[in-house]
UniProtKB/TrEMBL annotation:
Chain residue ranges for the region called Disordered: 1-54
Origin: domain of life: Bacteria
Compositional bias (Polar residues): 1-12
One CC-aspect GO term: cytoplasm
Protein name: Transcriptional regulator
Entry keyword set: Copper, Cytoplasm, DNA-binding, Metal-binding, Repressor, Transcription, Transcription regulation
Subcellular location(s) per record: Cytoplasm
UniProt key word DNA-binding: yes
Keyword check for Thylakoid: no
Family stated for the protein in its record: Belongs to the CsoR family.
Length: 138
């Protein structure tokens, strides 16, 4: 969701909407969602993906390259079907990355919650279920 802000010269620009819970002086890049709170998120560096971080970054850079390839293809007036093939490959790459991250979340974060008790398990399972729902909508 975006809003439109007026610049000092009268032109408008799109800006990300600020959630009501976020103070006006907090930059939007630092916005934390409910799932980022201390109750549900362990400290930095101990997430399920921590051991595979370098591999994940390499994979995301490859996907980024595919997206840039799409931009070049448009600039060079490449045939539509060839561009759609690249869109499919990029989409598949992101889906595969998301599934790997989800598996690591289940193995690490949900398993860790199992040690803490039934309420923690329920919270992590609900969190994972919502993440899966979001992934299926795309």
């Amino acid at each position: 969701m975006t809003t439109t802000d007026a610049d000092t010269n009268g032109s408008t620009r799109a800006a990300a909407a600020r959630p009501a819970s976020q103070p006006a002086d907090t930059p939007l890049t630092e916005h934390r969602t409910v799932t980022d709170t201390a109750e549900t998120s362990p400290s930095p560096g101990v997430h399920g993906y921590a051991q595979q971080k370098d591999a994940h970054l390499k994979r995301l850079r490859r996907i980024e390259g595919q997206i840039r390839g799409l931009q070049r293809m448009l600039e060079e007036d490449v045939y539509c079907i060839d561009i759609l093939t690249q869109v499919s490959a990029s989409t598949k790459g992101l889906q595969s990355f998301g599934l790997q991250l989800l598996e690591e979340h289940l193995r690490h974060c949900v398993a860790d919650a199992a040690v803490k008790g039934p309420e923690a398990i329920d919270a992590k399972v609900q969190e994972a279920t919502k993440a899966i729902e979001r992934m299926l909508r795309t």
